[in-house]
Design goal:
alpha+beta; Arc Repressor Mutant, subunit A; Nonspecific Lipid-transfer Protein, Chain A; 2 domains; five-stranded mixed β-sheet; two-stranded antiparallel sheet; 7 strands; globular
Length: 234
């Protein structure tokens, strides 16, 4: 099945794909084009340069990235920023309305991971890992715990603040910030086997390393889990 060349949604208005007044269908017209959601995901923790987005999504061509950014900007989901620190650069960032999509993406994530077809061995970006932790955190446990966590994923560094059952995460960049506990792995997938697969840090093949009080490390890992898989029909 071939798709017509997609131009910006805003110029075509509601009804571009489905000719349907349903608000959920309209949402898909806004963000349902191929690569739109991964691009939005990569901007959830702050603005990024075109080249950074492209590097995070190696299967995405420069042409398609340009088209999607233009479409998302026209729809009011993405905006362009000029920054001067640490060096002059033009960034793409989510608007406040775009940032509100995190709740939608969390709901989709919790729903879709219940499918037996979900494959955790596929590549995972560092931002996707950080957002998955915000999604899969048991917000009812340890609500009185206030702690800071440093995450190193390959070359990228993030700082998390767990407080009141909510995990806030920001990029650290080159800043040196002390944290109560820390985790480091060569890639995002290495975290999955410990945080969601509940394998021990010293198990064979585990490349995730942790720093800090072992009891606090175990306590933090214990806050995360995946919904049960749905049984397939006979």
């Amino acid at each position: 099945m071939k798709f017509k060349k997609e131009t910006n949604v805003a110029s075509q208005g509601h009804g571009k794909w489905y000719d349907d007044a349903c608000a959920a269908a309209f949402a898909m017209e806004l963000i349902g084009e191929r690569w739109s959601l991964p691009i939005i995901r990569e901007l959830m923790l702050g603005g990024r340069r075109f080249s950074d987005i492209r590097a995070s999504l190696p299967g995405l061509s420069a042409k398609v990235l340009t088209e999607r950014l233009e479409s998302l900007e026209a729809a009011g989901i993405v905006t362009r920023l000029a920054v001067n620190s640490p060096a002059p650069a033009k960034l793409y960032a989510l608007t406040d309305w775009g940032l509100a999509l995190e709740d939608v993406m969390q709901a989709l994530g919790r729903w879709s991971v219940q499918s037996p077809e979900h494959n955790p061995r596929l590549p995972l970006t560092p931002v996707s890992l950080m957002l998955s932790m915000r999604t899969m955190l048991d917000a009812t446990a340890d609500k009185d715990w206030d702690t800071t966590v440093r995450f190193v994923v390959g070359e990228e560094r993030f700082l998390g603040r767990l407080k009141g059952g909510d995990l806030r995460i920001e990029r650290m960049g080159d800043r040196e910030i002390q944290a109560d506990i820390a985790f480091q792995a060569p890639d995002a997938n290495a975290y999955l086997w410990v945080f969601y697969g509940k394998q021990a840090l010293d198990a064979a093949g585990i490349t995730l390393k942790a720093e800090g009080d072992p009891a606090l490390v175990a306590r933090f890992i214990g806050l995360f889990g995946l919904p049960e898989k749905r049984r397939q029909s006979a």
